[in-house]
Design a protein that fits this description.
The chain is an all-alpha fold. The chain has helices at about 1-20, 25-40, 45-55, 65-80. It has four helices and no strands.
Length: about 80
């Protein structure tokens, strides 16, 4: 689980840097990585929140990132919320 937490830390840093530099593709990739980490932890609410943050970035996104976004949307629909 520690690797997931470390990944989330650096993913959050990446999103902030990408936002500052107006690099939408990097921001989208980092948000998708954060959503993936949330899915691994069974945290549906956090994953959905990160996917919502992706939506404005999808307009001019590379096809592979759009496909990844769609994949996570479907995976999140299938996960159960972990107990707090």
């Amino acid at each position: 689980m520690r690797k997931v937490e470390t990944g989330k830390f650096y993913g959050t840093k990446s999103v902030k840097e990408a936002d500052v530099n107006e690099d939408n593709s990097t921001a989208l990739a980092a948000l998708l990585a954060l959503a993936s980490a949330d899915v691994q932890q069974g945290n549906k609410d956090a994953a959905l929140k990160n996917l919502e943050r992706c939506e404005p970035l999808l307009t001019n996104a590379p096809g592979n990132l759009v496909e990844e976004y769609e994949s996570y949307k479907h995976r999140i629909a299938d996960i159960k919320e972990s107990p707090s």
